[in-house]
User: Which sequence fits this backbone?
């Protein structure tokens, strides 16, 4: 289970960053790790001289304030304060229900498997208190009505999942922050 170190006890955009797998207790007991892998992506981080095939977002709460931090490839960004606690509160309140939810794979009437050169794989690691973490893996198209020129017969089922709502809320927030270039670059990790 990933842990992260906070460099200072005061919470501000420029005073701490999660970058090492240590001391998870310092960021609180409830957090989400959201990982997105873009198999066909060509995005490059010129500062760190690395591809950004994988973007990781850590959503957590400290002193009743929600933060989100981005790590893209080797590029580490400062945590960004969110306007509300809605996303993390929804997932904490729904944790017991999320344990039983399963995302059904994209499927058409004719076939079960769809192959594509560019796919986005998503992984959520949900941690609440001392419960065992929940890991949920799926492809982005599993939550889409149509893809690859065909209808997804599992879309009606998936769109009714509580997890669908959480994924939409979190991705909407991430998209807004990325469009505004709100994530402030901090450093390049040395893996």
Assistant:
């Amino acid at each position: 289970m990933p842990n992260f170190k906070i460099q200072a006890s005061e919470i501000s955009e420029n005073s701490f960053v999660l970058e090492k797998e240590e001391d998870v207790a310092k960021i609180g007991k409830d957090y989400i790790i959201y990982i997105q892998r873009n198999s066909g992506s060509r995005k490059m981080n010129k500062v760190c001289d690395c591809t950004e095939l994988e973007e990781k977002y850590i959503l957590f709460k400290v002193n009743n304030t929600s933060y989100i931090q981005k790590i893209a490839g080797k590029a580490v960004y400062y945590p960004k304060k969110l306007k509300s606690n809605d996303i993390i509160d929804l997932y904490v309140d729904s944790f017991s229900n999320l344990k039983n939810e399963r995302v059904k794979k994209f499927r058409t009437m004719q076939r079960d498997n769809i192959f594509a050169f560019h796919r986005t794989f998503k992984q959520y690691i949900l941690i609440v208190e001392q419960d065992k973490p929940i890991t949920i893996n799926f492809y982005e198209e599993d939550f889409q009505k149509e893809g690859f020129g065909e209808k997804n017969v599992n879309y009606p089922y998936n769109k009714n999942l509580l997890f669908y709502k959480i994924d939409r809320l979190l991705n909407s927030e991430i998209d807004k922050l990325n469009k505004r270039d709100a994530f402030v670059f901090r450093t390049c990790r040395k893996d």
User: Anything to note?
Assistant: Helices lie at 86-93, 95-98, 155-158, 162-179. The mean pLDDT is 79. Residues 60 and 88 are 7 Å apart (CA to CA).
